[in-house]
Task: inverse folding
DNA sequence: CAGCTTATGACACTGAGTGTCTTTATGGAA
DNA sequence: TTCCATAAAGACACTCAGTGTCATAAGCTG
């Protein structure tokens, strides 16, 4: 099985393609010529690789855009784990803070904005949101369940939280405000845990 | 422009294709052979029409599945308008009730369940949710704004509401409980309007 | 019947995504 | 150093979704 363990691998032909730079090339073409006017063939040629090789690193065209959002998820996970030990107000506050802090930890907000603007203006990319937000959904749900929120409530709150957060990101990207924090805070404020929320019991 | 005003149209070749029955045929094929194993060509052939004609009524393969969810949206809109004149607790309660009542007004829950099960188990169909829930999003947002909820809050609450509701529908469909109401009620309960909610002013 | 209008479909094309097989490049064993 | 196992890279061919163009069928109105 390829594409696993980039660490302990000393045999076989070495990797020559850098996915990051390929994605960067693709984003440039998308910006210059438009998303739909740029074919996978165009991208492969511009990146100096074969079309099939391109598909080996990016299973779909949308992944060239959405792939760059992984750091945001990872950043929020880091923030979540860091804050998990510390004060645990209530599960949603922790999530809210981790999303905001994760956004602040992103290396280049300009790139993030460009990416989200592209997403926000293309049917295909918007539609990928359900799938693309999967890992964010996973960690969010995990956190809520770990905090003792009943499973069903956790799933609904998770879905609501992800939906509102994505909306916030899109709105921030569409405008020109430098800081996404106010958007994320306002958006996540619409989610609540009804009745027995909090880290009280482990009612499944 | 075709496909408008199905009413006052007395000239030209009459319609012979019934989109409803075509969609029904498609759903049967999807159930029997699987969504990805059924091509648009297969559907056209089974429906006794040309492939291009099929595309005239269903722009995408996913529309053959998602198209059937329109009645649910329309039903909830009817409920919303009916209740709008009556008691207006708060904007979210009205939405909650309209969704539940809309579900109860659906003619055939078994078909709805089959459809949602198909959606819930296919990447492609799940991804279409963003686009497919657009009209539901529109009416929801409209209601909130009409109720005087600040626009930004309304958009976030709307996104959260739609996300939670969709999750509820998927979970109901995956199980065997006859009534979706409890799912919808529990899901929509996680959304709230922070601070100055309610039909007090018309702050834009 | 003539002509207008609209539904249907035949044909051809682009491009996404996939499977198979070949080639290339490296580290390690003989 | 030579050969071999291993894995990256790409060439090739294919399926199918979705689109555009154009021809034809079938009603209605005059």
Result:
């Amino acid at each position: 099985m390829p594409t696993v363990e980039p660490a302990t691998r000393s045999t076989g032909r070495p990797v020559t393609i850098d996915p990051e730079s390929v994605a960067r090339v693709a984003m440039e073409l998308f910006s210059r010529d438009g998303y739909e006017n740029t074919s996978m063939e165009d991208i492969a040629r511009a990146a100096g690789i074969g079309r099939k090789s391109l598909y080996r690193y990016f299973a779909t065209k949308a992944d060239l855009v959405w792939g760059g959002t992984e750091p945001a998820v990872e950043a929020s996970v880091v923030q979540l784990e860091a804050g998990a030990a510390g004060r645990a107000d209530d599960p949603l506050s922790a999530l809210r803070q981790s999303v905001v802090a994760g956004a602040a930890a992103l290396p280049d907000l300009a790139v993030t904005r460009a990416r989200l603007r592209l997403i926000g203006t293309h049917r295909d990319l918007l539609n990928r949101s359900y799938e693309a937000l999967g890992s964010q959904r996973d960690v969010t749900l995990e956190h809520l369940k770990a905090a003792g929120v009943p499973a069903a409530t956790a799933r609904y709150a998770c879905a609501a939280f992800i939906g509102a957060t994505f909306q916030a990101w899109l709105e921030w990207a569409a405008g020109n405000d430098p800081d996404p924090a106010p958007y994320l805070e306002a958006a996540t404020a619409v989610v609540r845990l009804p009745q027995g929320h909090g880290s009280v019991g482990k009612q499944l």
